[in-house]
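pasting for the record
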Amino acid sequence: MPDESRASSRGPNCYQCRHFAVSWDPTFPYLCRLMGFKSRALPAIEVLRVDGVFCQGFEAKPTPPQKPDRPVTSPPQNRADRGVRYG
């Protein structure tokens, strides 16, 4: 696990942000939906370059809901239970 102070000194990770997206434009492949711009570099790097501070709009992507564990059912014991009839 990275040290908290070390992680905050590197700034946010755009790939983990809910506002980050990949653009269709090969010239400007990255985009920030929150701030509404496309760039050649990751948006957090552009924000740091222009403003001189780390991106303040970072929001972690929501985690998908976990599927509940289902009980494993045994397969049917005879062929009639599966709806298959043989002569």
